[in-house]
Amino acid sequence: MLFKALFAEIICLFPLSVVTYPYFQKAAYFMLLGIFTALGFFNTLINVPLITKLQKAVPNEVRARFFSAFETALMAATPLGMAVAGPLLDILEASTLVATLVALSLLASIYCYINFKETIMNIGAEVREMMG
Asked: Is the pLDDT assigned to residue 2 strictly greater than 80?
């Protein structure tokens, strides 16, 4: 379910590259509303199981430190993404950049699915076995 939601979320990002064309200017608001609603739905299907798995896997003694570092890394990704995307928007059109980044995200997700599916799906399984 986790990977299905991840792939669905990435596929929902592809229409963002279409919204930037002037042809869709009048419908852009409604298109964005639909896209972001779908992203919010799939984001919930990804984050809840993932965070639950991490909470089960991380020992109580270090959970606070782990999640503070985890959240800090996630928060640092936003300005780094803007620092990379800003100059790229000077070179490429927005639709091309979005389509390229979504395609790269899809390829990275497929790679992780092929190589790390069992590892990711088994996070926290050891804890369940110990608890009975």
From this structure: no
Structure tokens at 116: 């790390």
Average pLDDT over residues 31-40: 91
CA distance 37 to 53: 25
pTM, 2 dp: 0.76
Q: Give the tokens for residue 117.
A: 């599916």
Q: For the chain, what is the domain count? A: 1
* Phi, psi (degrees; rounded to nearest 5) at 65: -65, -40
Encoding tokens for residue 98?
């979005």
Tokens of 59: 């020992």
* DSSP letter assigned to residue 58: S
Question: In terms of residue numbers, what domain contains 126?
Answer: 2-131
- Looking at residue 132, the DSSP 8-state letter turns out to be -
